[in-house]
C-alpha cells in the first residue's frame, strides 16, 4: 500500500502529466523559469498514483510503502534510465 510519494525536483522535466492526471496529489511549481512537479501532501487512489509514477518520463516520482521501502521505481529501472541517458 502506498503511504508516501516524493518528487525528485532536479530530475523532473516538468512535462505536467502528473499534475494534470492527478491534481489531488501533484501540483506545478515555478522554479526559476521552469515549471516542475511537487506533491500536495495528499494521496490519491493507489492505481492512479502507480499509473502516474510509471508514466513519468524521468522517473522523478517515487512511491513508498508504510515501512519506507520504495515501491516504484526500482533501482533497476533507475539504472536502465541512466544507461539510456548516457551519451
Which properties best describe this structure?
single chain; 87 residues; alpha+beta; Alpha-Beta Plaits; two-stranded antiparallel sheet; 3 helices; 5 strands; 26% strand
Q: Can you tell me the CATH topology?
A: Alpha-Beta Plaits
Q: What's the β-strand tally?
A: 5
- Number of H/I helices: 3
How many domains, in number, for the residues? 1
Contiguous runs where pLDDT drops below 50 for at least 5 residues: none
Going by helix content, strand content and strand pairing, the class is alpha+beta
User: What's the architecture in CATH terms?
Assistant: 2-Layer Sandwich
CATH top level is Alpha Beta
Please summarize the sheet with the most strands: 3 strands, antiparallel
Spell the H/E element sequence. Answer: EHEEHEEH
% residues in beta strands: 25-35%
What shape does the CA trace take?
A: globular
Mean pLDDT across the residues is 94
Gyration radius from CA atoms, angstroms: 13 Å
Approximate helicity band: 25-40%
Strand ordering within the main sheet: 1-4-5
Q: Cα distance, first to last residue? A: 37 Å
Short synopsis of the structure:
By secondary structure, the chain is an alpha+beta fold.
Describe it for me?
The structure is a single chain. The protein is α+β, with helices and mostly antiparallel strands and about 90 residues long. Helix content is about 30%, strand content about 25%. It contains three helices and five strands; from the N terminus they run βαββαββα. The strands form two sheets. The protein has a three-stranded antiparallel β-sheet, with helices on one face. Strands 2-3 form a two-stranded antiparallel ribbon. A hairpin with a 5-residue loop joins strand 4 (about 60-65) and strand 5 (about 70). The model has no long low-confidence stretch (mean pLDDT about 95).
Amino acid at each position: 500500500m502506498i503511504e508516501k510519494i516524493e518528487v525528485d525536483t532536479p530530475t523532473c522535466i516538468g512535462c505536467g502529466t502528473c499534475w494534470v492526471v492527478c491534481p489531488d496529489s501533484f501540483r506545478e511549481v515555478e522554479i526559476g523559469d521552469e515549471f516542475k512537479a511537487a506533491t500536495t501532501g495528499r494521496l490519491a487512489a493507489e492505481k492512479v498514483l502507480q499509473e502516474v509514477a510509471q508514466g513519468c518520463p524521468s522517473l522523478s516520482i517515487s512511491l513508498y510503502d508504510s515501512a519506507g521501502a520504495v515501491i516504484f521505481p526500482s533501482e533497476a529501472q533507475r539504472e536502465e534510465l541512466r544507461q539510456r541517458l548516457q551519451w
